[in-house]
Request: fold
Amino acid sequence: MKRLLLLGLTLCLLSACAMGKGELLPKLVRGPGASAALLRCTAVFPQGRWQFVHAIAFRLADGTSGNALGVLVLNGREIKSALMTVEGLTLFEARSSEAGELEVLRALPPFDNREFAGGLMRDVRTLFQPPPGLGQYGTLADGNPVCRYNAGQELTDILPREDGCWQLHTYSEQTSLRTDGCQPADPRREQRRTRTVNARSCGQVGSVILPHTLELTGSGPAGYTLNLRLVSAEPLPASP
Amino acid sequence: MRAPTFLGLLLGLLLGTTPVWGNPTVNPSVRLRSVQANFTQEKHLKILARPLVSQGIFAFQTPQSLRWEYLRPLHSILLLHEGQMRKLIEREGGFEQDNGAGIDAMRVVLQDIGSWLDGRFTDNPLFQVTRAGERTVVLTPKEQGLQAVISRIELQLGPEEGVMEQVTIFEGPESFTQLRFTNTVLNREIPAETFTQP
Reply:
């Protein structure tokens, strides 16, 4: 049970607590052909109805690590998700409607709190759904193409690659601290990186390209890494 | 109260293929020394469009040696031998050690395993044991805390003495795990490396 607690705390950290001194939001130079480019960026996410199973390995900054199974049923913006031990005990089961209303169906301690549920769904949306907000297309200083989505409190950059894989960064507004940890007299608000997703080993599954590995890294002192290895991907028939 | 965990319960049930709790007509002097079987595990959840199917093998030998191995879709092995236990997960062509919840589950198994092998499964104070048919046994948790994890367990005994056909563990109304066992072999000597090597 102690290790379950650790897993719970870890996963809470993943979504809620990993604020820190991430990299600053890079400058985007707007480019032509934004509409088509933005479509290419959102196309990296699975469309339609899918059931995914991932083997999840997590690692904290202090070296603590563990494993779990993640089950995900996607139907457009609707998400159903479960977290299980490798042996199949359901630790957490919930669904989030298209409107984002969260319903927790089962949550064993220490997963039985709203922060965990909300954070888990937020990470799932980051990994598997196009980001909300208005999109812009352009290039970064290094010339790499980028799609930037501004949802007010959070900015998301998607960097698609030629092989169908991609990288994603999220940024949120944070207040600058002095090196001693205190706020300066005139604190600056700036967009800093909070999470990075690397989609790797992308391959054809049916008619779509899916990453075999997704690695989500939370920035800052409470940093963490979530490694999702695709175990199965099943396209589901359209809803009746 | 000791909190039995999923694999602990599961193995406990499986290793309880001894006469007393399974079939009152069998000879209680027959003691289980080893069990080997294949299993298919189906996980049903309310949110799932299709159940998750896993397949694996297990081997147990007295006094406390165990190999519980999922072959697919995720290759993982739990090994127990001479007090040493480890859990391994295959990743990128090799095995890496997992320090997750399964290890805790096995500590529970070890605590109860002696009782089960002696056919004293009903000694476990956590469950109410009832018969729901000639070859069906239902275990219901007595305590509320355990009921939140598992609502009931149904055991389907085989026609052959000492053989379990199926175990269904109900977590809730639409959530259950069903294990079906095949090719069960009893009391055949199993080499020690089965319990030490991936």
Observations:
- The longest strand of chain B covers residues 175-186.
- Residues 101-117 of chain B form the longest helix (17 residues).
- Chain B touches chain A through 36 residues (CB under 8 Å).
- Residues 6 and 105 of chain B are 7 Å apart (CA to CA).
